[in-house]
Amino acid sequence: PSSTSTVLFDQSWLNLSKAKLNQLITSQLQADPTDSTCLLLTALQLPYGDSRVRALQQVVAAILQHGPGDWLYQHLHHIYCYLGWAIWKASPQPQPSLASRIFKRTDQPPTDLRALAKALTAMASSLMYKQGHIETVNVTAFLSKKVSEVEAIRQFEHFLRLAPECAFYVPDAHFYLAALYGQQQD
User: Fold this and answer.
1) How far is 121 from 86, CA to CA, in rounded Å?
2) What is the pTM assigned to this prediction?
3) Does residue 62 contact residue 46 with C-beta atoms inside 8 Å?
4) Is the pLDDT of residue 107 over 80?
5) Does residue 103 register a pLDDT over 80?
6) Which of 12-16, 136-140, 169-173, 178-182 has the lowest mean pLDDT?
7) How many beta carbons lie within 10 A of that of residue 84, not counting itself?
8) What is the DSSP string of 12-72?
9) Cα gap 117→147, rounded to integer Å
10) CB atoms closer than 10 angstroms to residue 142
11) Cα–Cα dist 34/58, whole Å
């Protein structure tokens, strides 16, 4: 949400008037409640949580309803990726205790597996629309850590094969791989 607001309203980016943009979006949605562009602009301004997830699901439904004629159809892989991440961010994130981290105890709170499955399903949908979308492969690898070290390693290695060396998340992928390899040796 903050990055969307920065891009839309900051002087060094688009410098749009928030009030005017909201007025235009509202009037367009009154004329066409399935306008995917307006729905997406609305969704991306919402904070992470259930409302953002529902709004992104509405965007996907509108685009699929319109089919390839919707100009956002070609970007469904991005929108499914945003949806998957929004689902994950909306779920409660268990935080291990300090003792758990220091002594590698397994008394950590459980991951919300239903939310994780829904997030991974959205990522799979993203990859159906664009195989090898590096952002989706990276997020899938990150989420896979919660399910299977072996699968996470496979996904991070796949990401590193796809991504240019200068890609933003390449250093993180190397870090996670090193940590995952280390966990396998324990």
Assistant:
1) 12
2) 0.85
3) no
4) no
5) no
6) 12-16
7) 26
8) TTT---HHHHHHHHHHHHHH-TT-HHHHHHHHHTSPSSHHHHHHHHHHHHHHHHHGGGSTT
9) 10
10) 21
11) 8
Place of tokens 């396998």: 184
Amino acid at 180: L
The C-alpha atoms of residue 23 and residue 118 are separated, in whole angstroms, by 33
Q: pLDDT tens digits, residue range 18-47?
A: 888 899 999 999 999 999 999 999 999 898
38-68 b/e (C-beta count within 10 Å ≥ 16 → b): bbbbbbbbbeeeeebbebbbbbbebbeeeee
Provide the pLDDT for residue 149.
92
- Tell me the C-alpha to C-alpha distance, in Å, between residue 165 and each of 132, 159, 160: 15, 11, 8
Distances from the Cα of 94 to the Cα of 27, 37, 109, angstroms:
41, 34, 5
Place of tokens 């949605």: 29
Say if CB 134 and CB 154 are below 8 A apart.
no
Dihedral Cα 132, 136, 142, 147, nearest 10 deg = -80
Angle 10-90-23 (CA atoms, 0-180°, nearest 5)?
A: 40
Lookup result for tokens 């990276």: 138
Locate tokens 């909306």: which residue? Answer: 90
- Rounded Cα distance, 2 and 164, in Å: 27
